[in-house]
Amino acid sequence: MSFGQTFKALSDPVRREILTLLKQGKLSAGEIGSHFDMTGATISYHLSILKKADLVYESKYKNYVYYELNTSVVEELMVWLSDLKGGTQE
Amino acid sequence: MSFGQTFKALSDPVRREILTLLKQGKLSAGEIGSHFDMTGATISYHLSILKKADLVYESKYKNYVYYELNTSVVEELMVWLSDLKGGTQE
DNA sequence: TTGGTATTTAGAAATATTTCTAAATAGATA
DNA sequence: TATCTATTTAGAAATATTTCTAAATACCAA
Questions:
Q1: Predicted confidence (pLDDT) per residue in A47-79, tens digit
Q2: How many independent structural domains does chain B possess?
Q3: CA distance A33 to chain B (A)
Q4: Can you tell me whether residue A83 is helix, strand or coil?
Q5: Using CA atoms, how far apart are residues A50 and B39, in angstroms rounded to an integer?
Q6: Most exposed of B4, B49, B55, B63 (fewest Cβ within 10 Å)?
Q7: Does B78 sit within 8 Å of A78, measured CB to CB?
Q8: Residue A25: which pLDDT band, with cuts at 50, 70 and 90?
């Protein structure tokens, strides 16, 4: 994981919306795609960016690929931001 | 402020290092530039991105332009990330 | 005013990103 | 096996980003 990669992943509105959808729980690539007016190939591209940034992980069942939020990386970002702000609890 | 703009600003390593330098306090554009092996024009470009993202604000004194961290936007990002993770205090 | 220092703007080149269409792969079922 | 559905990969086009050099602007000081 690199902060650059993670922040870049979060800079795109489609990817932020995918992550918001995944707050609800695991979804397949197709279910995610149905929320957007884009081709499956484009959604697959965005999912690959989120995966490389470790913001999601994937699991396979039958011929579906499911994606799920990885909250631990979100926490690492919060720590970095908190440190930037100047101290953990102020 | 838009989250997209702010996350994009944070995705670049030079800009993250500038913000880290500014944890110490206010610095002029030239002082910031002296920490990098880049032209002043390039530093000015990065500062403009940080300014548009509201991550820094600037003040002028004599013929210097000083930059300072704006922590309130950092807090807004933390709130967004915290919500993504699912709840404020868990 | 003239010249000096600090910073930004303009324009160009190299590279990266986002999207599409078309083709490829993976796995399920008839 | 043959075929269908779900998803990813490849390649291309449009756009955005990052950096530079050169020029412009801003402000101070002699």
A1: 999 999 999 999 999 999 999 999 999 999 999
A2: 1
A3: 20
A4: helix
A5: 33
A6: B63
A7: yes
A8: very high
Q: Is the dihedral of CA A51, A56, A57, A58 positive or negative?
A: negative
Give the total residue count for chain A: 90
* Structural contact between residues A24 and A66, judged by C-beta atoms closer than 8 angstroms: no
Share of chain A above pLDDT 90, in %: 92
Q: For residue A90, is it within any domain?
A: no
| Local structure of A23: helix, strand or coil | coil
Rg value, chain A, Cα = 14
Residues of the domain holding A11: 3-85
> Is A25 domain-assigned?
yes
| Phi, psi for B28 (deg, rounded to 5) | -80, 160
Q: Do A78 and B75 touch (CB under 8 A)?
A: no
Beta bridge partners of B65: B60
Q: What's the alpha-carbon Rg for chain B, to the nearest Å?
A: 14
CATH number of the domain enclosing B78: 1.10.10.10
Q: How far is A74 from chain B (nearest CA, A)?
A: 6
